[in-house]
Each structure stands twice: as C-alpha cells, then as structure tokens.
Specification:
Largest sheet: 8 strands, mixed
Strand order of the largest sheet: 8-9-10-7-11-12-13-14
Structural class: alpha/beta
Order of helices and strands: EHEHEHEHEHEHEHHEEEEEEEHH
Oligomer: single chain
Number of strands: 14
Radius of gyration: 20 Å
Distance between the termini: 42 Å
Number of helices: 10
Helix content: 25-40%
Shape: globular
Length: 352
C-alpha cells in the first residue's frame, strides 16, 4: 500500500488521475489539496476513498505517512511544489509539461537523483496501447527505415481559457506547442526509441485573439478560467516546425485556433517498408510496401491514465525507473525549448 497526496484538483485530476487512483487497490489517497477548498471537496466525487481535504500542500509534505504526491497544478507551479516534495522525501508524479522551461526541468531531475526519489512525468500517451504497438512495430523493423514523421494537432477556434493561465506565458510557458504539441512530439520520440535532437526550426504565431474581447468561438475548453477583460494572451495559437534527429526527421503543424472548420489530430509514420497513420489517440492503420494492403490490428485499449499511475506506484516499490521517468522525458522538454528559441530568433537552432 502506497499513501499519496493529490495536489491540484482541476480537470486533469478529475478526468484522469482521481478515477485511476480510485481503482488502484494499492493506493491510499490521504489528501486532496487545492487552494480552493470547494474544488477539493468536489473532487471527492471522483475519488471517494480520499480521506482529507486541505488547502496547504505543505501539510501533506510534512506527513511521514505520505509516500508520494501527484502534482496536478498549472504549469508554473510544477517546479516549486515538485522540488519541495522531493526535498521532503516524497516520490513525485508531475503532470506534463515537466515545467515551463528546460533549465528548470533539469534541476528537477538533478534533485530527484540527489534525493534518490522517483520523479515521473505525465506523458500519458506512452501508455496508450496504440503508441506502444507502434513502438513495437518500429523496433521489430516493420517500418524498415523510418525516415520521416509528420504530425498535425489543429482545431477550429478552440483557444482554452482565453486570458487566463493557459494564455499567460508566465504561468503556462507557452501556448499550443507546450499544451498539445508536447503530447505529439513526446510520443514520436518514444516511438523512435530515444532519438537525439540535432536541430530544430519553428515559427510561432498569436493571430486569432489579438483582440480578446472580439474573439469568437463556439465553445471554449476551460472557459471558467477565461479573463478576456483584464487577462493576458501572449502565447502561440499556431506553430509549424521541422526537427532533425540522428534518425528520422519530424515536421508538424499545430493550431489551437484556425479559420478552417476541421479538426486534424494525427501522426503519420513514413518508412521504406511500411507506413502508418495514428488518429490521435485511437487505433492506427498500417500499409505494407510489400503487399500494398491496408491493415488494422485488433487489440484492446486500456485506460492509459490508470496504466501510468499504476506504473508510477509500482516503480516506487521496485526502484525500477519507468518509461515516463524524467530521465526518459527530458529530451522532449529540450525540444520544446529549442523550438521556442528558433521561433524567437527566426532561424534554425542547434543548441540552447
């Protein structure tokens, strides 16, 4: 039995981790913590086994019974809470992105190493069965030489929480690239089996809500956090880029908001023996260069959040680092910084 505290009772907690922790028999949820006590109380509906509601996470860090904490707060708070938790002797599961930049992410890894604690990151797609199988296809040689991967993560006018934390760079670290792009780029690096980044080129735009009060939309995710009267919107709503690795090249287009009423969320893998398209995140189709036939494998897709949370708790007991340990995710964080640096300097970049 592992005793945990959940810090941050927002959407990712309620929609993913609390339902997962409720199902894990070996997880004791001693604390639900949120600055807004009503949010923590409401979260109990997703995890009735939770024992206490608190507003100060330091109470959980000071409790010797707590083995691990789940840091499910907005991006800017990941670093501070995680560092304090590690120093307090707790293992940490921290949602993606690791934090708002690569330098702070490296500090988090170094602190985890120093303290001898597990630090896992919420790269949930690494536990999605379709992504796992595509990695198996790649390692088994079914694609042959994978020479390029393209991904698209584009929606029609869907900027989340406009004017709130999502669009305030100081709090979020960025826009669609750090919010959606990290999922796509991380699963691509995982499928490639640890590709090393050689260079990155990116253009980033903030065009769709320059006048926040005039921004039109049909629906807005996280609308309860918006502040179009007094808030900030200084992040990217469209990105396009190209990445060179020591293996395959990667290209992408991403849009929180575009004036094309089509949602395109997919990953294309191009190899000399086969190719695949993964509709995000469903089952994938594979095409063989030998038979020219389309193939779709039949398999079950378990809850990826349940799988990643179980893996984290198991790693605490075994001492074996998982595929979502920070050691295996830092290259994704580095890539984000390289892309944002390229967009800022308007040129291809090779190092931070």
């Amino acid at each position: 039995m592992k005793t945990v505290a959940v810090i941050g009772c927002g959407r990712i907690a309620n929609n993913a981790h609390l339902p997962a922790l409720e199902q894990i028999e070996g997880a004791r949820v001693k604390y639900l913590c949120d600055l807004i006590p009503e949010k923590a109380e409401a979260a109990r509906a997703k995890c009735p086994k939770a024992e206490q509601v608190i507003t100060d996470y330091k109470i959980a860090l000071a409790d010797p019974e707590v083995d691990a904490v789940f840091v499910l707060t907005p991006n800017y708070a990941h670093y501070t809470i995680t560092m304090e938790a590690l120093k307090a002797g707790k293992h940490v599961f921290c949602e993606k992105p690791i934090t708002i930049n690569y330098a702070l992410s490296k500090e988090m890894k170094e602190e985890a190493d120093k303290c001898g604690k597990m630090l896992n990151i919420g790269v949930c797609n690494r536990y999605h069965r379709s992504v796992e199988k595509l990695r198996e296809y790649a390692s088994d040689g079914k694609f042959g030489n994978i020479y390029h991967i393209y991904c698209s993560f584009r929606n029609f006018r869907s900027i989340p929480g406009l004017g709130g934390a999502f669009t305030d760079k100081a709090q979020s670290g960025g826009g669609v690239l750090i919010d959606w792009g990290i999922h796509f780029l991380d699963l691509i690096l995982y499928i490639l089996g640890g590709a090393e980044i050689k260079s990155a080129s990116c253009d980033a735009y903030s065009e769709m809500a320059k006048d926040m009060k005039a921004y039109k939309y049909r629906n807005m995710w996280a609308e309860d956090t918006k502040d179009t009267e007094n808030g900030v919107n200084d992040v990217d709503d469209f990105v396009t880029g190209y990445v060179r690795t020591d293996g395959a090249s990667i290209s992408f287009n991403g849009a929180w908001a575009q004036n094309i009423d089509r949602d395109e969320m997919f990953v294309d893998i191009l190899g000399d023996k086969g190719g695949a398209r993964l509709e995000y995140v469903k089952k994938f189709k594979f095409w063989s260069a030998e038979t020219l036939e389309e193939f779709e494998e039949d398999y079950d897709i378990p809850d990826m959040y349940l799988c990643e949370d179980e893996a984290f708790l198991e790693s605490i007991g075994s001492g074996v680092k998982t595929k979502s340990n920070i050691d295996n995710v830092l290259e994704s964080a580095k890539l984000l910084d390289l892309l944002y640096l390229s967009a800022k300097e308007k040129k291809e970049v090779y190092e931070l």
